[in-house]
Amino acid sequence: MTDMPQTPETRTERRERERREAYYSASQWTLIWWRFRRHRAAMAASAILGLMIILGLFAEFFAPYGPTERNRDYLYGAPQMPMFCDQNGCSLRAFVHGTRTERDPVTLRSRTVPDPQTRRYVQFFVEGQPAKLLGVIPTRTRLFGLDEGRIHLWGTDELGRDVFSRTLYATRTSLSIGVLGVIISFVLALAIGGIAGYAGGLTDSAIQRVTEVVRVIPVIPLYMGLAAAMPREWSGLQVYFAMTVILGAVGWPTLARRVRSQLLSIRGEDYVTAARLAGARPSRIIGTHMLPSFTSFIIVDLVISFPYMILSETALSFVGLGLRPPAVSWGVMLQQAQSIRVIEQAPWLFIPALFVVVAVLAFTVIGDGLRDAADPYSEAR
Hints:
Number of strands: 4
Distance between the termini: 43 Å
CATH superfamily of the largest domain: MetI-like
Strand content: 5-15%
CATH topology of the largest domain: MetI-like fold
Number of helices: 15
Shape: globular
Largest sheet: 4 strands, antiparallel
CATH architecture of the largest domain: Orthogonal Bundle
Radius of gyration: 28 Å
Structural class: alpha+beta
Helix content: 55-70%
Number of domains: 2
């Protein structure tokens, strides 16, 4: 009996076969990445968050001015958006109108208003005040500026400081506090939750009681007391690190309980028993054998923790319990927009609040995407 002739494999069939082979031979992290990149909302949020991180890290280049530079001739100045056409015609180069001083007919105070009869052209890679890129590399080059005068894309505050530049510097501060705070709470959660879940018994009970005490501590009175305890002579850098440590020290209980519950469910597995019988130390059993079994879920919880850290820093700085000027963060900048009168006269001072909303939403969407990608039964593959 002769064998039936095999039909040649089509290109579509070959691609499907290669895709299946790659899927079944891929590592866990590769599978998570494949599922995550199919989550369009999470990918878009990652791009937005990545852009914010780049703008914050290289604020000395993207911001036309330093966070404390002042334009005394443009207090509470309105945003100056580049344009190509006005009532006097069009230009191939972007420009903004110059300014002039006039007296307000109602309050009789001097104010600075745009002068449509003058143009100031936008230039790129201009020289500015000396700064250190990433805190190390000396530079004077700024991405953009004017051929004459100053440009304020998002206006100025009551001291004449550029809101756009300060927002970029504030982005770096607020995001870095969130990152460092989450790292501190992450290390504490892994250590405390790992010990509780592996040891069990009296050790677990004692740790759970401590965890409950930390969770029920009223946050606002705690922050008020710690803020009052910070010496007034501390520099902005010292207050920054103190805020980071405080946020991290009170943010570990939730993740620690999740780590503990996972370890309790797998500590009786055969591979854990085999490692224990082989003489492995508890720290090695926890770090090498137990924690990696649910690392993807830990990372999801870690990403979701970022919005809470950012909101905590912003809220504390907003009410005066966090960072203090001359430090600049989203919360510090929003202190200027506390009154209705200021918001009515200078609504652009509320722009940092949009950055807070975008950052929190981006982290939330990324967390949702990672949760779906880490689920082995997810339909996104």
